[in-house]
């Protein structure tokens, strides 16, 4: 029982992690960013195996960043800002085409960053949805507005099929494990500005260094 409880996702957990994401001078802690993502992966896994291909990619990217953080140059990977500086100064990033650094921290975090925008749009739709709203439609709309433009046709197709398998709004709220629908809406209202701020800061960092299209 205890084991299955460990696996159980709660949106509150993710909210708390994103709360820890920013340093006093508004840099993004990679440790907490990936911890937030870990919570999201748990959530995806609890939605069923059709989300396996999605959660697996996110889990792989989380692990790449954790390996940098725990590696010998880990001190440069404390924040996204220090990572960008370090990898650019040491020419550890493939800028225009894939080459000798196919798994740079910068391009790996960029993938999670783009997906975070999807999540933000989707959760915002959920928050303002009504009882008869369809999660699959909200999820697909959010995806088409954001992440889809970075994915090839085959991934878009597979994602579209996975969205159709999403549970309906009541079941979806239950999986979030937060409480009544009213409580879910309240927690979303609290979580979204935090996620949005982390997103905006990361976006500005990547824009400033011209890194938004890393291969
Ligand atoms: C229900 C709430 C969902 C929020 C979680 C969002 C997870 C987003 C992961 C999408 C992954 C789709 C399949 C993988 C695609 C990769 O090719 C792609 N990865 C991402 C995260 O977009 C690009 O990575 P790549 O191939 O350049 O290493």
Distance between the termini: 43 Å
Number of strands: 0
CATH superfamily: Glycolipid transfer protein
- CA radius of gyration is 17 Å
The first-level CATH class is given as: Mainly Alpha
- The helix-and-strand class reads mainly alpha
Bound molecules: ligand 1PW
Briefly note the CATH topology name: Glycolipid transfer protein, GLTP
Mean pLDDT: 93
Q: How can the largest sheet be summarized?
A: none
What is the name of the CATH architecture? Orthogonal Bundle
- Count of domain modules: 1
Describe what you observe in this structure.
With 215 residues, the chain is mainly α. The protein has one domain: Glycolipid transfer protein (Glycolipid transfer protein, GLTP). Helix content is 67%, strand content 0%. The chain contains ten helices and no strands. Helix 2 (11-19) packs antiparallel against helix 3 (30-46) and helix 3 (30-46) runs antiparallel to helix 4 (52-70). The model is unreliable at 1-5 (pLDDT under 50). Ligand 1PW binds next to helix 3, helix 4, helix 6 and helix 8. Residues 29-177 form the Glycolipid transfer protein domain. It catalyses: N-(hexadecanoyl)-sphing-4-enine-1-phosphate(in) = N-(hexadecanoyl)-sphing-4-enine-1-phosphate(out); N-(9Z-octadecenoyl)-sphing-4-enine-1-phosphate(in) = N-(9Z-octadecenoyl)-sphing-4-enine-1-phosphate(out). Belongs to the GLTP family. GO terms for molecular function: ceramide 1-phosphate binding; ceramide 1-phosphate transfer activity.
Characteristic terms for this protein:
globular; single chain; lipid transport; binds ligand 1PW; 10 helices; mainly alpha; Glycolipid transfer protein, GLTP; 215 residues
